[in-house]
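Task card 7
Instruction: Convert sequence to structure tokens.
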Amino acid sequence: MQWEQLTAADFKQAMQETGVCVVPLGVVEKHSEHLPLGTDCYIAHGIACRAAEKEPAVVYPKYFFGQINEARCFPGTITISPRLLLELLGEVLDDVARNGFTKIILYNGHGGNEHLLRFLAQCCLWEQKPYHLYMPTERLSPSGQAEWDKLAEAPYGGHADEIETTLMLGLHPELVHLERVPEQPAQPLGRLDHLPATYNAIWWYADYPNHYAGDGSKATLAKGAKLVELAVDHLAQYIAAVKADTVIPALTLEFFERVRRIAK
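Output:
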């Protein structure tokens, strides 16, 4: 069930019946030459909507305000300041809870959001919230991953690659321009290899200055249908597990009770 498509009365009923809201997160950024700027949003939202058809949940509208500073040098990228980025997403989640949801799944379609979302999740131990956040850390189940590994052809990837191009073919083939896939696959340039193991914000640009990592030419419509199916099945199972979960709410309550006792 898509949040924005429901009437107010239907929304209230869906909230009461499911108790779970899935927030699909992405960004707007360059995806090589052959995929649309909104690829991450299309993938996250598309998989979430199909999963919610199998295991009922309410899916929040496409959320494209994410961490994508590393793509500011490319046309079409949408960025906002880091502090506002964190505050805005926090406010959105608070408002999802105000509408009655006590369990919120963050379904992320963009690798650059991972640090942001993990930090946001940790912030839930700073101030007790009326909801609990859940964030799947894998797109496929172990069995689903094994199935995909049998189909995958490119030995490496990361952005606008075989996986993302395949998912877009499975969800929105009309937006994929396979004829524009670069002739040469994109491998990391290793421009920071002169340093010991290091993290720096420029790492992605250092390896992939054209915002392409992998080989999108290996994607096909047949693979797209299968990969989408595997991703949808995994998320549907995840939604069911979140619905049934009583451990995280109980542990969170116990944690904050101990926090309050310290002050007494």
